[in-house]
Amino acid sequence: MKDKIEHIIAGALIAAFVGLPCYLDSGNLFAGIWASIFSSVIAGGVKEWADNVYGIGADWKDFLATCIGAVAVAVFIICLHFGKG
Q: What is the pTM of this model?
């Protein structure tokens, strides 16, 4: 369980560091959402690929947990966009 929480946090941090500046700089809601999700999906995929290459074994649940963190940041960006008033 601790491993999945770490994956969620990692996905959220990656999404926040990529998606939030993209949204705040452009003001484009979809740019922020897609940048956050895409960056975490790529990072999670590369991490699981590396686990497979180095013999640890890829786990789709780890990948899914990373994506859940990205979705949380995407929801935050949506709330930020529509909460401006």
A: 0.89
